[in-house]
Structure formats: C-alpha cells, structure tokens
C-alpha cells in the first residue's frame, strides 16, 4: 500500500509506504498522509472475521494498510499489543478478552463500546500501545532511535508514556504544566520509573509547554541532530489502529453481516471518528456516524452549516470534557480530502485559508450537497448537559460514565431518531469516569470507583523535573540525556 498527501506532494520517497511515514508527522507539503485508496472489504471477509479475537482481527485489517512488514511479524506485533493483561479494566460482567466489549444500556439498541480499558483509562491507549510496538520493531530493523518530544495536559502524554516505556530505541520527553493537572494524572505519569521516560513539569500553562515543543521542532538542525519525533494525533498509524474497533463493535452489536450499525463519537481532533469514516468507506455497514462535540463546537458547526471556522486560542472554552477542548481539528483535513473527491488542489486551497487563520465555507458547494452520503450527523453538549446525562445514565442503568462519553450519550439521545429503526447505536466510551472524578462528584455526589491496580498511585515515588519555560534549558536537558 502506497501513501499520498492530502495536498498532493508526499515527498521522498515519491510513493512512501507505511514504515516510511510511521515515524514522521505531516507530509513535507504540510498535508496529512492517507492510503492512495481505501482497501475494500468483501462480504466473505466480513463473514470470516466476525468471530475473530481482537488481535487477529487487527492483523487482518492492518495488513491491508501495512504491506511493508512481513505478515508473521505484523501478526506477532498485534498479538503482543492486544491482550487482556494490557486492556484489563473492563466493566464487571464484560469480557476483558474482547479488548473492546460492548456494555449495553438498552440491549440491542443502545450500548457503550468500551475503548478505555487500557493502562491509562482512555481510548488513546487503543492506538498508542500498537504504536509503541511498531516503533520498537521498525527502529530495531533500521538500527535507529527516536526521541519523542511532546506537550500534554493529560490523556495523550500518559498514553504515549505507557506505550513507550521500556521500548528499545525510544526516549520520551514529555512536557506538562506544573501544578495544572489533577493529582491522579500527575501520579499516572510521574510515577513511571522507566529510564527512557522523562517528565518535565514546566512552570507555566499548557500553551507554554506547547510553544517550547514548537520552538524545538522548528530548530531543524537540533531536530535532525537529536532525532526528535512526535506521536500526535495526525499520525497515520494511530488512525489505522482505530479502524479495528469499529469492525469489532459492529460484530458485537449485530448477529449477521446483513445488518447495519450506527456509532456516536465524542470528538475533538477528529482522529477517532476519522477512523469510523474510513471503516465505512472500506465497506463496513455503518448507517450513521454521529459526531459529538462539547462547547468547542467547530466540527458541529461544519456538519450543520458547511462552514469550517477554526477558533482562536482565546475563543477555546475550558470545559469539563477537556480532551475535546480544541480550536481546530487536526485530522479533519483527511475527511475533507474525501469530501472534495480526493482533489489535493482543492484541499491545499482550503487549508491555505485555515493556515492563515481564516474560515472556509462549503455551504453552497456541490460537495457539501452530497455530505449525507458520508453518513455524518452532529450535535453539541454543554457542562449542564454532561451533568444531566451522567445522572440519567447512572439512575436509569446503574452505569457511571465519564464526561466525554456523556457528551456522546447526550448527542446519541438527541439524534437517535435519525438512525433507522432496528439499527443498534454504539456510543464510543473514550475514558473511564475515575479520570474526571471532580465532575462525577458534581453530578452524582460520590467518587467514581477506581480500578484496583490504580489504588493509591498518588503515594508512589515520582520522577519529574521541574523547569522554567526556557527553550534553551530544555534543549540542554535533552542533549545531556541523548548524548549521556
Ligand atoms: C482524545 C480524546 C477525545 C477526542 O478524540 P479525537 O480523536 O481527538 O476526536 C475524546 N475523549 C477523550 C477522553 C480523549 O482523550
């Protein structure tokens, strides 16, 4: 499988394959990588895959996107990644061995697709754990190493650290805002004692940490000399890994491949639902993809009106579903590429506007007139909606959900009438409630349950360097660890 850029120039080599783009971020022209065409899944394949365990299903699907790793090796990587030991936080009564079990609220009609049973209790583990194993494999083959530099306000940083800990050839330098994360989030990250993980708490805000990452990455000599890489949400391998659980969810929610399913996806950077879009393009029978945002409704606005209007940082709301607090959706370009008939000139013209801080308007275009063919509908949720939804789900079903999943359930209820009768609707559960316990207490007056293996982690010794937001000091810190 060859990869192309949404803006037309994928760079050198001219037609990269999966391993060529695995360790990189954007394509050299600023676009995002996509397969040159989506592999189609036949009815015979769907029939054969229906009963496969998660790791084998992952191999079957990923081997369509990854043709430059020998099949036996890819199979072993999937088997090592998707185990019940790693994804061990399934709800009582659900099978951990299913990796992403469905927890029905209304049997056969409305369910939660559990994506948050990995080590950091958020769906990012689904892709990041695979990425860790792929990185280690490809770096060993090439005799190379990488130094991952990132900034986090929570979920992404911890998922990256748990995926990369102890991996040969990989070091992680993760910047976080000093004193701005919850005690639980700090404990999750800072208690890691692995020698290849470096936590740097920057005395500033998240934006200061992010600015340092940008400054270091823009120093091309330093970046090349120190083999600096990233694992952000535009990484194609992360999107590809996420395609798998849409198939798994479909098989769990239906009893035959004649049926359809609908998904509702709490969305921020459009990475998760982009994988759903790709699964549908591959031929998975998905009736509808419902996109849920919080108060940061840039995506909801687009699907309702055809106007994509990225917000300024100052216009971005700080909400109680913080992992969806985005001002522009970094993976959205992949969908728009498909929407405009995979025309890279059109995408480049639209993103010339976006990159200049302006909106684009497709409302009068022939492309937007056909948007229904892609199955998308959208809605938004507020803090009050989240509280009410968490309460209602707890009272009606005895199930505690996190704030992001609550945004999804709220929009699923609102749009359920647009899903054809008899089609099961799965809301993607993107985090467990214990990660956002403040809002759970606000909604329910009680603390969420904490998985037994995470009891008391706040008391563990922590390994973190507190540093001023000083680019040169942080470069020196990296240099000493890399050369050391
Ligand atoms: C990252 C994240 C999201 C948003 O996912 P995108 O792929 O950015 O759309 C939603 N919920 C949680 C808990 C997350 O960590």
Protein architecture, described:
Its cofactor is pyridoxal 5'-phosphate. Residues 2-82 form the Threonine synthase N-terminal domain. The protein is α/β, with parallel strands linked by helices and 484 residues long. It has a domain at 97-120 and 245-444: Rossmann fold, CATH 3.40.50. It contains 19 helices and 15 strands. It has helices at 18-22, 43-49, 54-65, 71-81, 124-142, 155-164, 183-190, 206-218, 220-225, 236-253, 271-281, 298-305, 332-339, 344-355, 366-369, 383-397, 403-415, 437-444, 471-483, and strands at 3-5, 33-35, 102-106, 110-114, 146-151, 170-177, 197-202, 228-229, 261-266, 286-293, 307-308, 360-361, 376-380, 425-429, 465-467. The strands form 4 sheets. The protein has a 6-stranded mixed sheet, sandwiched between helices. A 5-stranded parallel sheet has the order 8-5-6-7-15, sandwiched between helices. The longest helix is centred in the N-terminal third of the chain and has 19 residues, at 124-142. It is globular, with a radius of gyration of 21 Å. Residues 122, 124, 155, 233, 266-272, 323-324, 404, 430-431 line the site of pyridoxal-5'-phosphate.
